[in-house]
Structure prediction request, 119 residues.
Amino acid sequence: SLTTALARAIAPSGHVHTFEHHQARVEAAAAEFATNGIADVVTVMQRDIEGCGFPSSLHGTADGVFLDLPAPWKATASALACLAPNGVFVSFSPCIEQVQKTCEALHAAGGVKLKTFEC
Prediction:
């Protein structure tokens, strides 16, 4: 998973916070992280990021925020609040309409240097 790859890249001194919408997925992910030996650098919690945003305790602390959500534009302001200076925002979206809405929300929330890539 992306979280596993990120955790391996930042270990041992960094930390990944990941959020799942459903508690069953939280439990499965936690077990996966333990099996992969990365539980000490990953915190997984249940939270509706689109509806509630990120916890305020993370504001200003993240070097990067990666979103893989159906409606990422709903979480852009909260995601930007979590970024440390020079932090990076990344969103994965399969549809151009999602990309457009996310870019509009980022711009409205003060996002700068927006780039999009099609793969």
Summary: The mean pLDDT is 94. The first strand starts at residue 16 and ends at 20.
